[in-house]
Specification:
By secondary structure, the protein is α/β, with parallel strands linked by helices. It has helices at about 1-5, 20-30, 70-80, 90-105, 120-135, 150-160, 165-175, 195-235, 240-250, 255-280, 285-295, 305-310, 315-320, 330-340, 345-355, 365-380, 385-390, 405-440, 440-445, 450-455, 465-470, 480-485, 490-505, 510-520, 520-550, and strands at about 10-15, 35-40, 40-50, 55-60, 80-90, 110-115, 140.
Length: about 550
């Protein structure tokens, strides 16, 4: 068995970000999302797919800054039997010059795939086609979004035959008189209007799915209550109290699990559609380019915006994605994610709480304050202006029409991660929390928050919700207990402050463990106390703002 495993070819797709590498991977692997494998504790960064006895490897795209993902990809070069060098045909010589030194002295089968063929000039395609025939270059000129089965078979077949690409052939390619094609300037590139359009586009990517998800969840929640929750509660009421508590108790796997799913899944799905569409069209890269100078004012850069956006789906995934950030700004980025990027469970829970309190409008100022708090958090704790000195490595991408295949591939990846990672962890935590609740430990733990609640003049009944929000951010749903009895004791301002405090006081337990795994215990502890202090400062600021507004009115 060992001998057989060693004979399997491992083919790495090597290229820069936005080169069409992941799209090519999806086409070669028949649109299957493949499996994610552990790399330094991550289940995110390296994607594998077994195709015709060959393992295709989609490693993170290289960028022009010092990052962990760059090193991961370079390490994959050492493991691979074959290398598929993916470069944009519009910038072939520029990108090949930077990539070839990584494989120059490696005894690997190498072939080159020039993407964006539809954006190349006729002259460049003609010169490359002649070179392929004359010098028998292992080069394919393709539009990865419309890749024929014939080309796919040729690529896979050549992987079995091709030898190491000689330096002479590379030199010839670099000397061919190819024409470089830059993406056209659009409204994003205008000095004053561009940033405004980018911010509007970014808000639309987030707010429209959230609004749609809110209406969907509001509609289906009563149906699930009637047809699932109530019958299940009646069914388990005749079982042992311990069993009843685990499945349909306050933190029950079925009761809280179904309720959280109703509010989380629509957001995950619609946010996945939104980000897949932005990624497939190139819109996300344009937004990053435009907002880069402004993010530097809060110790971040444009590249950090990618994991921050992902954080609105899942903070854990976003922490892994931060490996593509510059080493100078990665901690700042993770710190912002932990504080200001509301994950899908947190969004669903806050929407549910505000809706139960008949104040759904509060969600919009809540998100705004969350973002401003994250910016303040980054400014307070990261004094050095390292982001300004780091290499952003931004490249203007082409805007293009989305394809159904590309869109569905990205969406399937997000949904697979939700069902295989987030859901099992949530069920496990519900199970553990139910046991702790049954034996009374969570109630004792909640007493730790009584001084904090007294400080902000909150009722003691809110302590349990604060305690459970540390375990998972949808623990905020505990505030809905007793048909919203807690809301009768709170003013609108107190409700807003309570939800904000539960959201930002700490990140959820899973995110904290992920940060610990990525940065070590000392750094994780530093993240926790810094976030707690910022949350308290922001809460007092909100109180002060509410007081000033009430005085003016």
């Amino acid at each position: 068995m060992l001998v057989q495993a060693n004979t399997i070819s491992r083919s790495l797709l090597l290229g820069f970000e936005s080169s069409g590498k992941s799209t090519l991977f999806s086409r070669l692997s028949g649109e299957s999302v493949g499996e994610e494998t552990n790399v330094k504790g991550s289940t995110y960064s390296i994607r594998l797919n077994n195709v015709d006895g060959q393992i295709l490897v989609d490693a993170p795209g290289l960028n022009f800054s010092e990052s962990i993902t760059n090193q991961m990809t370079i390490n994959e070069v050492e493991k691979s039997t074959n290398i598929i060098v993916v470069v944009r045909g519009t910038h072939l010589q520029e990108e090949l010059t930077k990539l070839y030194p990584l494989i120059q002295h490696k005894q690997r089968r190498v072939l080159i795939v020039a993407t964006h063929a539809d954006k190349m000039t006729k002259k460049s395609k003609q010169l490359l086609s002649e070179a392929i025939i004359t010098y028998k270059l292992p080069l394919f000129i393709v539009d990865t979004r419309n890749l024929s089965m014939d080309i796919i078979q040729q690529i896979m077949e050549l992987l079995r035959k091709q030898k190491n690409l000689s330096y002479e052939k590379i030199q010839y390619l670099l000397e061919v008189d190819l024409e470089k094609v830059e993406p056209k300037e659009l409204i994003f590139d205008y000095p004053l209007v561009g940033p405004i359009v980018a911010i509007i586009s970014l808000n639309s990517m987030f707010l429209l799915p959230v609004i749609a998800a809110y209406f969907i969840s509001t509609y289906i929640q009563p149906l699930f209550d009637r047809w699932f929750i109530q019958p299940l509660t009646h069914l388990f009421s005749e079982t042992h109290p311990f069993i009843e508590d685990i499945f349909v108790g306050d933190f029950g796997v079925l009761s809280l699990g179904i309720y959280s799913f109703i509010w989380a899944f629509p957001i995950v799905f619609l946010m996945g559609c939104s980000t897949a569409l932005a990624d497939e069209t190139g819109l996300k890269d344009r937004i990053i380019d435009v907002l880069d100078p402004y993010l530097r004012k809060i110790r971040l850069n444009g590249r950090d915006l990618i994991p921050i956006i992902s954080g609105f789906g899942c903070n854990v995934v976003a922490v892994f994605q931060s490996r593509s950030c510059s080493l100078c700004t990665r901690k700042q980025c993770v710190s912002f994610i932990s504080f200001g990027s509301a994950c899908s469970y947190q969004i669903g829970a806050t929407l549910s709480v505000f809706n139960s309190a008949n104040n759904p409008w509060m969600f919009f100022p809540y998100i705004l304050v969350l973002f401003l708090g994250g910016a303040l958090h980054s400014r307070i704790w990261y004094k050095n202006n390292s982001a300004s000195n780091s290499v952003a490595g931004l490249r203007r991408s082409f805007l293009q029409k989305p394809t159904i295949k590309g869109f569905s591939f990205k969406l399937k990846s997000d949904l697979k991660q939700f069902f295989t990672q987030a859901i099992p962890i949530f069920i496990l935590i519900c199970f553990i929390a139910s046991i702790l609740h049954f034996i009374g430990i969570i109630e004792y733990f909640s007493y730790l928050f009584l001084p904090l609640l007294n400080l902000f003049q909150m009722p003691v009944e809110a302590a349990l919700g604060l305690a459970f929000s540390i375990i998972r951010k949808d623990g905020i749903l505990v505030f809905n207990e007793g048909n919203g009895a807690l809301f009768t004791q709170l003013s609108d301002a107190q409700l807003f402050i309570l939800v904000f405090l539960a959201s930002t006081m700490t990140s959820c337990l899973v995110t904290m463990l992920t940060i610990w795994k990525e940065f070590g215990l000392k750094s994780a502890a530093k993240f926790v106390y810094q976030q707690f202090l910022t949350s308290i400062v922001c809460t007092f600021s909100i109180l002060g703002g509410v007081y000033m507004i009430s005085e003016l009115l």
